[in-house]
Amino acid sequence: xxxxxxxxxxxxxxxxxxxxxxxxxxxxxxxxxxxxxxxxxxxxxxxxxxxxxxxxxxxxxxxxxxxxxxxxxxxxxxxx
Length: 80
Hints:
By secondary structure, the protein is mainly alpha-helical. It has helices at 4-15, 21-33, 35-54, 61-79. The relative contact order is 0.15.
């Protein structure tokens, strides 16, 4: 089974359906057994849904990408 760190490394691609079937299977196995990653996954999906459905504003990638990078780096650091 993959580690939480490996899960985090693939997480964005998983959310965007950009992983192979094999990687998806490994990630979903990890999700089925790791409560911390389940919470991250559920929270992220809900947040994306709220933001995309609200259509109240759009952040340019030059703003949103660094934010996402910092959040993911923080999550990786906290798990260590």
